[in-house]
Amino acid sequence: MDNLSHRQNRTWLAVLSAVVLVLAGVAILDNQHRQRLEAEARVQAAQDQAKRQSRQRMEGELALRNEVESASRREAALQRQLREMDAGASRLQAADGQQQARRQMAEGELQELRTQRAKLERQVDCERIQLTLNQLAAKGNMDQALKLQTLWAMPCPSLQAAG
Length: 163
Prior knowledge:
Layout: H1 2-92, H2 97-138, H3 142-151
């Protein structure tokens, strides 16, 4: 009977060992599955963030482009005004003090608008480069992103390669 009880104990021990191994295997598979799901969620979150940033940058770029176009229209209007003033001065052959003052003001505004437009155009370029950096980073092309950031670091000092 002692031999029978010993065999039963070994059988129970073998069954328990098998159950423990099965449970450990299930736990390992569950952990791997959970890690895979978490990694997929992180990738999706990074892609969503990159898309949001891309959309925000495009909206910002559109607003900047609209400002550039508006500045260009104002510049053209001022240039027409200057031409009209020049034509009027030529016809009258006399320099009117007020007209000269208006002309100087218009020339100053024109120069200021040209400067503003140049800044806005540079800002649009920097926004485009940042968008490209974000897209490269989202795709995992950090080497290309860092090269691009280095190349544009001087004209666009606020670029960030990490998206």
